[in-house]
Every structure is written in C-alpha cells, then in structure tokens.
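In this section we walk through a basic example: taking a raw amino acid sequence and producing a predicted 3D structure, encoded as discrete structure tokens. The instruction is simple. Fold the sequence below.
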Amino acid sequence: MLDGVRNGVILEDQTSPLTFFWLLLVQCYCPKLQVLRLGWCKAITDDGLEALAQASPKQLFELDLSLTRISNHGLSALQRIIYISPVRSLDLSASDVQADALLASLMALKSTVILTDLKLDFLSDLSLRQMSTFFESDASRRLVQFQINHCTASTTETTPRAVNRVIQTALARNQRDIERSASSS
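The resulting token sequence is shown next.
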C-alpha cells in the first residue's frame, strides 16, 4: 500500500509479490520521496534495490531495509543511493548483508556519507577491527546512533565490552563535534 505523507511517500508493502513493480512505480511517481520503509518485506532483494538505485532518489532521508533479502550483492546499489541522496537513517537489521562488508562499503563513500542513525541488529560477521576502522573514517563522523544488537562476531576478539568501548568513544567524539560546530555558528 502506498501511504501519502508530507513531502513524500512511505511505501509499506509486506506481502505483495509485486515489490519490484512497486519500486519501479516509486521511480516514476515519487520524485520527492524522503522516507522509504520496507522493513519486514521479504520480497525486497538486491534486484529491487538496484531498481531503486536506478530511480536516483535525490531527497531520500530515511531508508529501512530491515528483514529484507538484501545481501552483499546489493551493496553497490546501496552505495549509489547513499551517494545521490542525503540518507541520514539506514536500517539493515536482520537482512542478509554481512556487517563488515557493509561498513567497508560505507567507508568507500568517504565524506559523502551523512548518516546520523545506523541500525545493524542481527547481522553476521562483525569484526572489531573493521568496526574500529569504520569509526575512524569520515563515513562515521555524523553518526549519533549506532545499533548492533545480537550481531554475530567474525572472530573471538570481538567482545561486547570491546565493541561497546569503540562505539561509545566514537559517538562521544561525534557529539562533541556537533556541539562545537553549533556553538561556533
């Protein structure tokens, strides 16, 4: 079902076998799309994400792909969407994407990433090294919320305490930077 909202459309279609078709309709009829929530829509695959990337949404602020069948193969389409759109909130929780591959993909975009909210609950293959590298990169500079509940670690060095320390340090740094820039303007 397409529900109209102010300045865009929220597409919530959890059961339709025509999901790819819905994304093509979004391309044609929703050029000012700002919020796209496809959570729990198992019909969304890498091909559907590719169709969305081809639509080149230029005003997309929120993208929810939780519990979809998006995999590592769809990361190049996701990169194009994030490069074109000012995506601030991204949820890939419980999708088929591997956490390390996603973080590497976001780092490749460097400073074009303006994510403030990233949710990666229930993903697999999260390493402390990749997460630390991500938080040291420009791709994480605006993050104020990072959620990784119930992720599967790729190595034994990824302990909850170590992960929490990396996240808390990076988010505190980002919050200080935001406050500093607000006070100087």
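Looking at the output, two observations stand out. The first helix runs from residue 19 to 29. Confidence is low (pLDDT under 50) at residues 1-18. In the next section we compare this with other chains.
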